[in-house]
Structures are given as C-alpha cells and as structure tokens.
Amino acid sequence: MDAIMIKESFDILNIIALGVISIILLLLSAMASGSEAAFFSLTRLDMEQLRETNDANSQRVLDLLSNPDRLLATILVTNNMVNICLVITVTQLVDNIFIFSGVWEFIFNTIIITFLLLLFGEIMPKVLSQTNPVKMTRLLAAPLKLLRWLVYPLAIILIRTSSRVSRLASKNSEISIEELADAVDLTETGSEEEQKMLTGIVSFGQTEVVEIMHSRVDITGLEYEATYDEVRKIIVETGYSRIPVYGEDLDDVRGVLYVKDLLRHIGEDSDFAWQTLLRKPYFVPEHMMIDDLLKEFQKKKIHIAIVVDEYGATQGLVSLEDILEEVVGEITDESDDDEDKLYEKIGENTYIFDAKIHIGDFVEAIGFDEDAFSDVEGHAETLAGLMMELKRDLPRRGDELQSHGVKFFIATMDGRRVDKIKVEIDG
Q1: Phi-psi region for residue 60, left (φ > 0), alpha (ψ -120 to 50) or beta?
Q2: Coil vs helix vs strand at 411
Q3: Residue 311: strand, helix, or coil
C-alpha cells in the first residue's frame, strides 16, 4: 500500500475555501513576524526620519512605538493565534486531499507543514523587514493599529501578567549587601586601592555617622566669649577651615565659624565682634546613615555637621571629607602631617596605633577579618573602647592586654584618656 494517496473524491469548494483561508492566515503570520522585526530594529536615525516625514503612516508608526509593551503584546498575540489557526486549517486541507498510512501523516503534518510555516511565516518576513525597516513599518502601521484595537483585552492580560512575573523575578534576584561584599572580595582588580574603593562603595549605604565621626574629645572648638586675637591664634595653630563655636561647653554649640568669612576682617582689632560671622550649626543623629548625610550636605550646601545623641548631647563632628574617605580612602593635604596618622608600623608584626582609631580600621590595618573582635568588643567603637571592654575597667599606662593572638600595650595617656597603644601580633 502506498504511503500517501490522493483521495478519489473530495469537496472542491471546501478545498478552495480552506486553501484561501490558509493563504490569508499565512500572510497574516508573515505580517506579524515582519512587523516585529521591523519595528524593533528601528535606529535613532530611522526615528528622526519618520519625524521629519510627518505623514499619516509615519505618525502611526510613532504612535505605536510610544507604547512598545502594548505593541509587542499585540504582535505576539496576533502571531500565535494566526499560527494556531493556520496549522489547524492546513491540516484539514491536507486531510481533505490525501490519505496517509503509518507515520507519514505525522511526518507530513508536523515536519513539512512546520518547515513551510517557519520559512514563509517567520524567517523570510523577518529577513525582508530588516532590510528596509522604515518602509516596512510605514506599510504595516495601519493594519497593526487595527489589530491593536482588536486584541486589546488579550494584550492587556499578557502585559500585566508578564509585568507581575518580572517584578517577582527581580524581587527574588535581589542580593544582600553581604553577598555583594563577598563578590567584591572575589573580584580581581588592578590594585589594592581599587579593591578598597569597591569595598567602600558596597558598604557606603550601611555605615552610620558614629562610625566615621571625630569623637567629642577630638573636637577643636572656639569659646563664644573668646577675643579675636585668641580666635586667630587657634586658627593658625590648627589649620582648620571650619570650627564649631560653643557657649558653656560642647553641648552648647552656637554656630560654626568659616575661616574664609574672616578674610575680609583679618586686620581688625582684638575686640572685633567675630561672633556676627557665625553660621547656623547643622545637627545630625549619631545613627544616621552616611549616604543620607551626604544627600543633606549636597542639599544644604554645607560641609560639616555636629553629631548628637538621643538626649541632644554632642558626641562628635563629621565632615564631607570624612564621608568621601569612606569610598576613596584617606585624603591628605598640605596641612596634614605625620602626627595625624592613626597608626604606624614599626616592625614586621608591631604597630603603634592612635587609641581613637575605629575598630574596623584597626582590624583592616593588621589584616584581620572585620568581625575578628566581635565577640569581645561589646559596644566599643574605637580601639580605646576595645581596651576598656577587654580590661572591664579604665585602662592605665603600662597595662598589657591580650586577645585573639594580639598583645596590646597602653603606651601613652592624655590625662584619663588613652592616647597611644602598641600592638604586637603573634607571628
């Protein structure tokens, strides 16, 4: 028995109708595929050309592209519906003409018809459309606007469903700061400075003001009742460009003196009322994030803020430079000297640290993990605070403490305040 035979009798009108419908559906499929390739391959120059032409078809193209999601949904819905109808119609047409035996029906209906559909309904229209996308979009704009109206309900469902899936996918794909930090640690960069900068950028939004501020004991301030001669002397000795001014003590900050405001009054007598030049102080909470503070600095066009606790007491001072140093590293200028360094390496495993250095900077300097002392540091923020946590008492000069393979020696004191700490790492 032959694999494929033509039927002895068939309904010629039915075959003609199915043939005509198949051709129409194939043309619609080709139009949908071609329009997708044409519309979404337009360049910026093509768009300018359409705007300059400014005829009805060009305006239709621009209107369709004003909502690309709806345009794509219209094309996809049309293409899929047409292709399904085309397969059904062609299958009926073939069944009305031929008789198959064995697997030949599957081969003919599946492989041959699919090949013809892909060739004439997908590949060729897309290739032709990409050769002259402007011309094709202008030609297809009118029927696409009609189709956009006809398939509107299905297109809207498709858009909303895909949008929701996209949001869920993006929500599930969010990574934590810790994962991002781990990724930075695994990244190979050109230098150690670049690695530190990447790490600073990652942790920027997770750093609080209290972690980078200059503590209260390190603030150089001016008494409100000081004479102009005393003010000039302090300015020359410190080299600071902005100095807080206080009344009875640092909890009573009344303003900030900008040294540049004094330039026009440099030759005034000692009784000059320099207090009239004070600028309003800006107070921030100690647990404010530094990325938020940076935005406030930019908004208010200021460079310095007084850090206060929940009771309004002054805890420290933070500047724009302190924030930038969290990303780019230590910034030095001609007014900085070696005395401003927070640590010095004096041996292979021996350092001299300023007691006010932040614990995070300390462990980074000695090459330890950032949480190396997390089990003993308690609420301490500085190396001096870590000494208090380890001793459970006020440190004194000559004290020797040990923790996690590190020996600490209280080298110098400034009154009751720890000044310098010698650190030896067990090698």
Answers
A1: alpha
A2: strand
A3: coil
What's 208-328's CATH class? alpha beta
Residue range 324-380, pLDDT digits in tens = 777 666 655 555 554 456 788 888 889 999 888 888 888 888 888 878 888 888 878
Two tokens, residue 218:
């390190």
The type of residue at 393 is D
Beta-carbon count within 10 A of 29 CB: 23
pTM over 0.70: no
The structural architecture, per CATH, of the domain 338-425 is 2-Layer Sandwich (3.30)
- φ, ψ at 205 (rounded to 5°): -75, 0
Side chain identity at residue 146, one-letter code: L
Tally of CB atoms within 10 A around 60? 19
Order of strands, edge to edge, in the sheet holding 283-285? 214-215, 314-319, 304-308, 283-285
Are residues 212 and 326 in contact, defined by beta-carbon separation less than 8 angstroms?
Answer: yes
Q: Residues 256-275: pLDDT tens digits?
A: 999 999 888 888 888 889 99
